Amino acid sequence: MNLIANPGFETGTLAAWQSFNATINCRYVQTGFFSAQLEGGMANSYIQQIVPVDSNSSYQFVISLAKAGELRSPMMSIFLLFLDAAQNTVSLGFALSMRTLNQPDSTFCS
User: Fold this and answer.
1) Could you tell me the pTM of the whole model?
2) Could you report the per-residue pLDDT of 47-73, keeping only the tens digit for each?
3) How far apart are CA 60 and CA 80, in angstroms?
4) Could you tell me the maximum CA-CA distance found in the chain, to the nearest angstrom?
């Protein structure tokens, strides 16, 4: 069961997500018809969603990333935070910052 609302952006919107410098497009998709595109270059951009979970359960987090074009991808950070009812950080699930050359170029995907 997927706990994330609108996980594949299949509403054609960013409904259920908080975002900054992000848009929905139908050009670069992993599955389905839509994807989120974050502004590149030096612009700060993000999408985020708060998802309630049970502390006695295990979860799997899966994300698909690609870049648009042949240039090196910008620095990216992915955070998974655990919050309490007051939205205070209780613990850090993981934090990953990366810049990679082998991220797939989505302009060549069909």
Assistant:
1) 0.77
2) 999 998 888 888 898 888 877 777 777
3) 11
4) 44
